[in-house]
Design a protein that fits this description.
The structure holds two protein chains of two kinds.
Chain A: E1 2-6, H1 10-22, E2 26-30, H2 33-42, E3 47-51, E4 53-54, E5 57-58, H3 59-68, E6 74-79, H4 84-92, E7 97-100, H5 105-119, E8 126-129, E9 132-135, E10 140-143, E11 146-148, H6 152-163, E12 169-170, H7 171-179, H8 191-204, E13 212-215, E14 219-222
Parallel strand pairs in A: 1-2, 1-3, 3-6, 6-7
Antiparallel strand pairs in A: 4-5, 8-9, 9-10, 10-11, 12-14, 13-14
Helix pairs in contact in A: 2-3, 6-8
Chain B: H1 3-51, H2 55-61, E1 71-75, E2 81-88, E3 97-106, E4 109-122, E5 125-134, H3 136-184, H4 202-251, H5 258-288, E6 296-299, H6 300-310, H7 312-317, E7 321-325, E8 331-334, H8 336-352, E9 359-367, E10 370-377, H9 384-389, H10 407-417, E11 421-427, E12 431-437
Parallel strand pairs in B: 7-9
Antiparallel strand pairs in B: 1-2, 2-5, 3-4, 4-5, 6-8, 9-10, 10-12, 11-12
The chains are: A alpha/beta, B alpha+beta.
C-alpha cells in the first residue's frame, strides 16, 4: 500500500512515515501543495494523509484537485485547527476521514486500514491472529470455525490490537479509540481493563493466549 | 415607562399646573380689574352727584318726600344701580369715602352690590351718600369666563397631549430603530448592519455613528481573537503532535526495559493531559468568540440516552443507578455538539463525585413556564462557598480532586452561549442538583 503524507512539518511527517513503514506501508512525503500534486500525478497512491495548513495554500485545494480526477485514493484530513467547519468542509469535499492533531499513530493506522478497506470495496474482510479469525463485516470472531460471542467494545479492542500487532498500545490509546477523543481531563482510563479482561477470558477458553500480553502499568500488546 | 410617555405626561402635568394657577388667580384678577373699573364708575357718579348738590337739592331729595325717614333713595328699574342719601349725625363721622361689598335688599330682591359710601357735612348737617352697583352681572360673567377657560384649557390639554405623544414618538423613532435593528438582533459583530439610521435629530445620528464605530472595534477584536485562537491551536498542537508521534514510535522500540516503557507511557499521559487542557481552553475561547452555529434541533431524550450508553462502564464500575426520567418533548435549537458537551460534563461530574452504589436522576419539567432539565446525584455535595467557585476556570473544589477544573467552566460558557441558566443546589454528603433553565 502506497501512502502519500502531505505535511509541512518535516519532523511530524517523518515520524508518521516511520510508523507506517513499520506497519508495512510504503510512504512518501510532500511538504507543500505543489509537491503533493506533483507526487500525486507521477505515482499511484492508495491513500493520502493531508494536513490542511500548508505553506503554499490550503490543503483543501489539493483535495479539490484530486477529487476532480478519477482516482480512488483514500484521503484522511489531518488538522490542528480542530474547527467544526473544517470537518464539515472536509467531508463535503470528499475526505474519507478526519483526524485532529495531536492524534495517536496507532489510531491513524486503524483509520487508514478502515478507509483503504472501504475504498477497495470491502474485499479485505478477515483478519487472522493465532488461529482466531476476525470477520470485520459483521463484528464476529471465530476460532477453528467455532464462533466466539464478543461485545462490540471487545471486538473493537481486539481488532485495534490486532491491527497494531507487535506494538505496545497504551490504555489511553485504547480508551480514545473506543470512546473517542473525550474532552474530560484525567478521565480514568481503567474502564478499558474490564473489557480487556473479559475479552481475554473469552479467548482463553479456546487456546492459550500468552501472545496477548499485558504491559504492566502501561497497556497491552498482541504479538504475532 | 418609556421616555415618550414620560415626556408627554410631564408636559401635560406642567400645562395642568398652569391651568390651575390661572383658575386660582381668576377671582383676584376680577377683583383687581373689574372692581377697579366699577369703583371708578362709582366715583364718577359720586362726583357728578356732589357737584350739582346744594341745600335746595338736598331738601328736594330728602325733606320734600314728606316722610320721617330722612332718607332719599333712588334705583334703576332692574336694580342694577341704586343711590341712597341719608342724614347722619355729625359726630358719627367716618372716613370720607369707602368701598364695600354687601348684600342689599331692594324692593324685596336681594343682590350683591359694590357700594361707595361717602360721608360729608353740609351746613352743619352730616350726610351719608351710598351709590351701589350690582355685582350679579359681574358674578355671572366671572362664572362664564371660568367655565370657558376650563373648557378651552381642557381641550388644549388633550390636543397638546396627543400632539406631544405623536411628535415625541416621531422624534424617538430612530432611537427604537437603532435598538431593534442594531442592538437586539446582533449576536455577533459580523452580522451588524452598518447602514446609517435616517434620523432628524442629530443626537440619534451621533448615537448611530458611535454605535457603528463601537461595533467596528468589537468586530476587529473578535476577528483578532479568532486569528489568535487559530494560531494558538496550530502553534501549540503541532509540537504536541510531534512529541506524541516521537514517543509512540519510541515506545515500539524492542530494546526498551520495563522502566523506560513506563516512563514513556507516563510522558504520553502527561502530553494527553496537556492536549486536553489546550483543547478545553480553546473550546471556551471559541464559544466566547461565537464561532459556533446554533441552528440544530436538539432532542434531550436522545442526548441523555446516548450519554448513558457512553458512560455505562463508569456508571456500572461505581455501582451507580442511573434514572433517565425525561418526559417532555422539548425541542431546543442550538449547537448539538456543545449541548452534548454541556450535559456530558454535568453527568460525568455526577458520576465522579458520587458515592459507591449511589444514584443519578436526570429529570425535566416546567418551572414558571420555563423548561428545565435537572441532574441530581447522591454524591459528596458542595458547600455554599464551593458553589460560588465551581464555574471558575481551574477552580478546584478540594485538594485531592482530580482534573483541571475546566469541565464546569466549559458548561457555563456553553450555557451562556445558548442563554441557558444553570442553577446549583447542594447538601453536603447528600448530593448536588444542577438545573438547566431554558428560556
Amino acid at each position: 500500500m502506497n501512502v502519500l503524507i502531505v505535511e509541512d512539518n518535516k519532523e511530524i511527517a517523518e515520524e508518521v512515515c516511520d510508523f507506517l513503514c513499520s506497519a508495512g506501508y510504503i510512504c512518501k512525503i510532500a511538504n507543500n501543495c505543489a509537491d503533493a500534486l506533483e507526487e500525486f500525478g507521477s505515482n499511484d497512491y492508495d491513500a493520502m494523509l493531508l494536513d490542511l495548513g500548508l505553506p503554499d495554500g490550503d490543503g483543501f485545494e489539493v483535495l479539490k484537485a484530486i477529487r476532480k480526477t478519477k482516482s480512488k485514493i483514500a484521503v484522511i484530513v489531518l488538522t490542528a485547527r480542530g474547527e467544526l467547519d473544517d470537518r464539515i468542509n472536509g467531508l463535503h469535499l470528499g475526505a474519507d476521514d478526519y483526524l485532529t492533531k495531536p492524534f495517536a499513530l496507532t489510531e491513524l493506522a486503524a483509520r487508514l486500514f478502515a478507509v483503504i478497506r472501504r475504498i477497495h470495496g470491502f474485499t479485505l474482510n478477515n483478519l487472522g491472529i493465532h488461529g482466531f479469525l476476525l470477520q470485520l463485516q459483521d463484528y464476529k470472531v471465530s476460532f477453528n470455525e467455532v464462533s466466539i460471542n464478543l461485545t462490540k467494545k471487545e471486538f473493537d479492542i481486539f481488532q485495534y490490537l490486532v491491527l497494531n500487532k507487535n506494538r505496545v498500545i497504551t490504555r489511553l490509546q485504547l480508551t480514545e479509540h473506543i470512546w473517542g477523543d473525550i474532552l474530560e481531563i484525567n478521565s480514568d482510563s481503567n474502564f478499558i481493563d474490564v473489557h480487556v479482561r473479559n475479552l481475554r477470558k473469552k479467548l482463553d477458553k479456546h487456546t492459550s493466549i500468552d501472545w496477548f500480553e499485558t504491559v504492566r502499568n502501561v497497556g497491552y500488546r498482541i504479538n504475532e | 415607562m418609556k421616555i415618550k410617555h414620560q415626556l408627554a405626561i410631564f408636559n401635560a402635568l406642567t400645562r395642568l399646573l398652569v391651568i390651575l394657577i390661572l383658575w386660582l388667580m381668576l377671582p383676584i384678577l376680577v377683583e383687581n380689574v373689574v372692581y377697579r373699573h366699577i369703583n371708578n364708575g362709582l366715583i364718577e357718579k359720586k362726583k357728578k352727584f356732589i357737584e350739582h348738590l346744594n341745600q335746595q337739592e338736598i331738601n328736594d331729595f330728602i325733606e320734600n318726600k314728606g316722610d320721617s325717614t330722612e332718607t332719599y333713595s333712588q334705583f334703576s328699574t332692574l336694580h342694577s344701580e341704586f343711590l341712597v342719601l341719608s342724614k347722619v349725625s355729625v359726630k358719627f363721622r367716618q372716613k370720607e369715602t369707602i368701598f364695600k361689598k354687601e348684600y342689599r335688599i331692594i324692593e324685596g330682591e336681594e343682590n350683591e352690590y359694590r357700594i361707595l359710601q361717602y360721608h360729608f357735612v353740609y351746613e352743619n348737617q352730616g350726610y351719608q351718600l351710598e351709590i351701589g352697583s350690582s355685582l350679579s352681572e359681574v358674578n355671572d360673567l366671572t362664572f362664564i369666563i371660568r367655565l370657558f377657560i376650563i373648557i378651552v384649557l381642557v381641550i388644549i390639554l388633550l390636543v397638546t397631549f396627543l400632539a406631544d405623544t405623536v411628535y415625541i414618538e416621531y422624534l424617538l423613532k430612530p432611537f427604537y430603530k437603532i435598538i431593534d435593528t442594531k442592538i437586539k438582533r446582533v449576536n455577533e459583530p459580523e452580522v451588524f448592519d452598518h447602514t446609517p439610521i435616517n434620523a432628524k435629530s442629530r443626537d440619534f445620528r451621533e448615537l448611530d455613528l458611535v454605535l457603528n464605530q463601537m461595533m467596528d472595534r468589537i468586530a476587529d477584536v473578535f476577528k483578532k481573537e479568532k486569528q489568535f485562537i487559530s494560531n494558538v491551536s496550530h502553534e501549540l498542537l503541532t509540537p504536541i503532535t510531534l512529541l506524541k508521534s516521537k514517543l509512540e514510535n519510541l515506545l515500539q522500540n524492542g530494546s526498551l526495559d520495563d522502566n523506560a516503557i513506563d516512563k514513556i507511557a507516563g510522558s504520553l499521559k502527561t502530553l494527553d493531559m496537556l492536549k486536553k487542557i489546550i483543547n478545553n481552553l480553546l473550546l471556551i475561547s471559541r464559544i466566547e468568540n461565537n464561532q459556533y452555529q446554533s441552528n440544530e434541533n436538539i432532542n434531550f431524550q436522545e442526548i441523555i440516552s446516548e450519554l448513558q450508553e457512553d458512560l455505562q462502564d463508569r456508571i456500572e464500575d461505581k455501582g451507580i443507578r442511573f434514572f433517565n426520567k425525561i418526559k417532555h418533548d422539548f425541542v431546543f435549537r442550538g449547537n448539538k455538539t456543545l449541548i452534548h458537551v454541556l450535559i456530558y460534563n454535568l453527568v460525568t461530574n455526577a458520576v465522579k463525585y458520587n458515592k459507591p452504589d449511589g444514584e443519578i436522576i436526570v429529570s425535566d419539567g416546567l418551572l414558571q413556564d420555563r423548561y428545565f432539565i435537572s441532574i441530581a446525584d447522591s454524591g459528596i455535595g458542595l458547600s455554599e462557598s464551593q458553589i460560588e467557585q465551581i464555574f471558575n476556570r481551574f477552580a478546584r473544589v478540594s485538594a485531592d480532586q482530580e482534573g483541571q477544573g475546566l469541565g464546569l467552566a466549559i458548561a457555563k460558557s456553553i450555557a451562556v452561549f445558548h442563554h441557558i441558566e444553570i442553577k446549583v443546589s447542594s447538601v453536603i454528603n447528600e448530593g448536588t442538583v444542577f438545573t438547566l433553565l431554558f428560556l
